[in-house]
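With this grant's support, we have settled on a layout for protein records. An illustrative entry appears below exactly as we store it:
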Amino acid sequence: MMRRYPLAVLLFLLCFIVLTTSAFPQSFQETRALAVRGDPRAQYELGLMYAEGRGVKQNYVQARVWWGKAAAKGHTGGQYNLGLLYVEGKGVTQNLARAKAWFEKAAAQNDPRAQYELGVLYVEGKGVKQDYTQAQAWFDKAAAQGYAGAQYNLGLLYAGGKGVPQDYTQAQAWFEKAAAQNDPRAQYELGVLYVEGKGVKQDYAQAQAWFDKAAAQGHAGAQYNLGLLYAGGKGVPQDYAQAQAWFEKAAAQNDPRAQYELGVLYLEGKGVKQDYTQAKAWFDKAAAQGYAGAQYNLGLLYAGGQGVPQDYAQAQAWFEKAAAQNDPRAQYELGVMYAKGKGVTQDYTQAKAWFEKAAAQGDVRARYELGIILRGMKE
């Protein structure tokens, strides 16, 4: 099943470039002169110049000073940007309570960006108690003004049933609004809905269409999922070369799932010449990020001496890493090692413990081996 990225990762995307830049024609010196005379628009623009290093050396402390002056005069952009500075701790000590206060001032003037950021704080529980209902309320305000990030996050809340009853139809509606503004995250999520048939009829062709849109914007999850569609021939003719190409794009962005899938292609010789050394290289990359499937496969390579010298100690180490993440295949392999004394002292008690863990997750092989051990213990 195709997975989403974690909500936390997807929701908290803050930046310091204001989405609606002002057309202020003055040079740095002209802008500063106006700012010194107390013009709030000039004070705000001067803050932008310092934050972006435009016409002057980048300096977040000075950005804070000038945005503070503009904010004190009610300038919403100054208030919003001060909130961002306090969230990120740039030019100031990080202070989420102050960030919230500044976002609230801008939000009270109906600034959709500030309303969105307040929603993010409540989703993350940063500077406030986590509260999905409050988050929804703020996202609603921003979404009503067409703010794509808020529309996308409402989609996530409805899909996850957080702060609202789970409702895939509502999730789809919000994702479509954000996707219509070319938000790649929303396009990706629509693809996932069509793959999983949640709130819509399962439709791999529709899924591919949405993943294509997101992937064209560099969305790693969409690139990975296109790889899966081509590898599985779902909604498209099976094409391992295309699968490899999409996995490589996602892997270049350090997506461990794509790195793992490339390892599998080389391991099985699908669309590429079988190459255990290449397989290991890709599994290494994914395993270094904690990907259990890659850790398990490295264990198999070391146990079988494929692409590496046979090394049961290394195999055991990798199986243990995957087993610690509750991978039943790795738990089974550890059971086999202890039952047969491969790289470890033969120990039926340890074997039994590992087989029990794997069997509890439905591993049929582990149940069989466990039965043999239990019968032997009774005899």
